[in-house]
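Let us practice reading a record.
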Amino acid sequence: QVQLVESGGGLVEAGGSLRLSCAASGRTSSRYAVGWFRQAPGKERDFVAAISLSGDSTNYADSVKGRFTISRDNAKNTVYLQMNNLKVEDTAVYYCAARAVLSSGSVYVYGQHYNYWGQGTQVTVSS
């Protein structure tokens, strides 16, 4: 199994930027696709972005497309979510998740596809 720890959350003004990190440990020799999800108070968990094992394939929710960028550094066992032009509605707890894969180019946008989850990091955007 793999353990995931998110970091980089915090308070930022609307229009600002944050970069979240998801550090993996454990069976990092295994092959994983990774996704970011978020959950705002009183709302369901939503897909944000996903990246393939190789990093060559990505997918984004329409609400963040053009503003957020997911990337990974496999040598550091870390996945990043660069968030620019933040909006108040981006306020949520952000979670990273990992899924063991065979294909280096596969991406997944549904939470049910992921086996491993981090503890979450709070992102608050003020107006």
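A brief commentary: The mean pLDDT is 95.
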